[in-house]
Amino acid sequence: MSAHGYEAQAPQAPALPSHRGAATLAVLLNRINHLLLVISMVGMIVTALVLSYSVVMRYFFKVATDWQDEAAVFMLVGATFFCAAYVQSFRGHIGIEALAGLLSPAVNRVRLILVDVLSFLFCAFFSWKSWTLFHEALVEGQTTSSTLAPPLWIPYSLMAFGMTLLSVQILVQLIGRITEKE
Q: For the whole model, what pTM was predicted?
């Protein structure tokens, strides 16, 4: 047993909804989420290497590495948004469960559906706005203000894609919750 009272275990696959179409989509999402999780892990390692390289080059050799900040931020944006749907598939995002014990099962079910609906609406709006930012950056050729000036469509596309996957993940879970047998 660990110091925190639980054993670290690899997570099992998320539960599939009973709705046939939602279950099929959930299986596809699980595969995409796993691939993006691996890509994000590699991205985090590369980010750590880039930032370590930057520190060494600046401290020991007094060499400017203006590219490393933006490369690291872009990779961190990708890792963050690419993993959001994976975390949601296990319902791993922060939730307040203090009310769950006080409410009847029927009222709690309505509360959970309401939370999923509101989460979906927020994430769908965020996703739509992210795609509009991506489109504007691509069409207008927007870049960062640094000397390297990488195009802004790169982080906006990572954000938009990740939020779209998160929205679909929440929708699949919402359909599963609504169609589940009591």
A: 0.88
